[in-house]
Specification:
CATH class: Alpha Beta
CATH superfamily: P-loop containing nucleotide triphosphate hydrolases
Bound molecules: adenosine-5'-diphosphate, magnesium ion
Helix content: 25-40%
Strand content: 25-35%
Largest sheet: 6 strands, mixed
Order of helices and strands: EEEHEEHEHHHEHEHEE
Number of domains: 1
CATH architecture: 3-Layer(aba) Sandwich
């Protein structure tokens, strides 16, 4: 499903560049669930942005389902994200002029799904927001906005789910409901799940745990250094 080969990534800072990822290689099989853990600033979000084709590595290659991302145009990357990925960012990127239901319905409408309203309403109910369908993002709390963003990312049952601290803004109970939904899609549809999380018990629910440390990715269990 995912193959990273010798990924190097740096950001320009003042006159030089700061290296974030160094020689990162990784294979993730279709249907696997993988937790990415590591201290703040270790490059977890950067790794997800690269997987989504929203940023490009300095070196190395990324393949998603056999397609090399660096061989795609920006339009083709956008199509790939729309059709095959569900992406949950730390910032929610909701459309302010659309209601909760409108935000979740949009990806289905773009895809021409005749059942878009029913499917969107169903997934909003499953994240506990059926009573907020007609609310606009600015009328919702941070946790509610996060749940709308998660519903929108998952409503088209994508084969690849990329989630950046999906339960980070949620109380324990809501976080549990949202992670149950993520794992349910993963289990029932065989979606591949790559999730950045600080939550140790959530990381342990994944098939594998990977830790980013000093720009390198190591297979490893959750430990005291991961939080
Ligand atoms: P994490 O998600 O693990 O907290 P990030 O991937 O967001 O880490 O960031 C890794 C490092 O790269 C941090 O030191 C951060 O400051 C830096 N960084 C991230 N994005 C940019 C950017 N657009 N420009 C410059 N530096 C960045
Ligand atoms: Mg981050």
């Amino acid at each position: 499903m995912i193959r990273l080969t010798n990924i190097g990534m740096s950001y320009p800072v003042e006159q030089s560049r700061v290296s974030v990822l160094k020689e990162v290689s990784l294979d993730i099989q279709a249907g696997e669930s993988v937790a990415v853990i590591g201290p703040s600033g270790s490059g977890k979000t950067t790794l997800l942005l690269l997987l989504a084709g929203l940023d490009h590595p300095d070196t190395g290659s990324i393949e998603i389902q056999g397609t090399r991302l660096d061989e795609l145009t920006n339009d083709e990357l956008a199509d790939l994200r729309r059709d095959r990925m569900g992406i949950v960012f730390q910032s929610f990127h909701l459309i302010p002029s659309l209601t909760a239901l409108g935000n979740v319905t949009l990806p289905l409408e773009i895809a021409g799904d005749p059942e878009s309203n029913a499917k969107a309403a169903d997934i909003l109910r499953r994240v506990g927001l059926d009573h907020r369908e007609t609310h606009y993002p600015m009328q919702l709390s941070g946790g509610e906005q996060q749940r709308v963003a998660i519903a929108r990312a998952l409503v088209h049952s994508p084969p690849l789910i990329l989630a950046d601290e999906p339960t980070g803004n949620l109380d324990k109970e809501t976080g549990r409901a949202v992670s149950d939904l993520l794992f349910e899609l993963h289990d029932n549809l065989g979606s591949t799940l790559v999730m950045v999380t600080h939550d140790e018990s959530l990381a342990q629910r994944c098939d594998r745990q990977l830790r980013l440390d000093g720009g390198a990715l190591v297979e490893g269990c959750v430990d005291a250094h991961s939080a």
